Amino acid sequence: MMKLVSVIGGSQILPSSEEYSFAYKLGKLIAKKGWGVVCGGKSGVMEAVCRGAKEEGGLTVGIMPSLTGEDANPYVDIKINTGLGHARNPIVVASGEIVVAIGGNYGTLSEIAYSLIYGKTVLGYKTHKIEGVIQISKPEEVKKYLK
């Protein structure tokens, strides 16, 4: 059975941003290690990580906020349509073995909180600096957690 990494972060970032580049490289790394990506399925960080994973032949899962999945980015393989909006956040983080937070705002903060409640390892790049989040500066630092 394939293991998944939950990747969380902002949907409003631009493809030219550092966060987008980090997420894209992370997606490639995750797929090369034989793991899949699970995320909120939308734009920004979620699109970047899915794009990187797809380019390496990896599996991507989007836990969608809508009932229709029409808001999915084009790199999502499996859409799980929930109709739950932000209430889907606990499902996103519960689905992965580890969680990587990239940037983000209050939605990401809530996902970090659920991750810590569930006892998940949480790695963070330019995200909320709170107790329990292991701060990282490059995607390669995630490799040691993909066992």
Model description:
- The structure is a single chain.
- The chain has a single domain (4-145), classed as Rossmann fold, CATH 3.40.50.450.
- It contains 4 helices and 7 strands.
- The chain is globular and about 35 Å long.
- A 7-stranded parallel sheet has the order 4-3-2-1-5-6-7, with helices on both faces.
- It is an alpha/beta fold and 147 residues long.
- Helix content is 30%, strand content 22%.
- This is TIGR00725 family protein.
The helix fraction, in percent, is 25-40%
State the shape: globular
Order of helices and strands: EHEHEEHEHEE
Regions with little confidence, pLDDT below 50 for 5+ residues: none
Distance between the termini: 13 Å
Class, according to the CATH hierarchy? Alpha Beta
- The share of residues in extended strands comes to 15-25%
Major sheet description = 7 strands, parallel
Number of strands: 7
Q: DSSP helix count?
A: 4
Rg, rounded, reads 13 Å
What structural keywords apply?
147 residues, Rossmann fold, seven-stranded parallel beta sheet, 4 helices, 22% strand, globular
List the SSEs and their pairings.
Blueprint: E1 4-9, H1 18-32, E2 36-39, H2 45-55, E3 60-64, E4 78-81, H3 89-94, E5 98-102, H4 106-117, E6 121-125, E7 133-135
Parallel strand pairs: 1-2, 1-5, 2-3, 3-4, 5-6, 6-7
Protein name: TIGR00725 family protein
InterPro entries: CHP00725, LDcluster4, LOG_family_nucleotidases
Pfam families: LDcluster4 (PF18306)
Brief overview, please?
With 147 residues, the protein is α/β, with parallel strands linked by helices. Helices cover 30% and strands 22% of the residues.
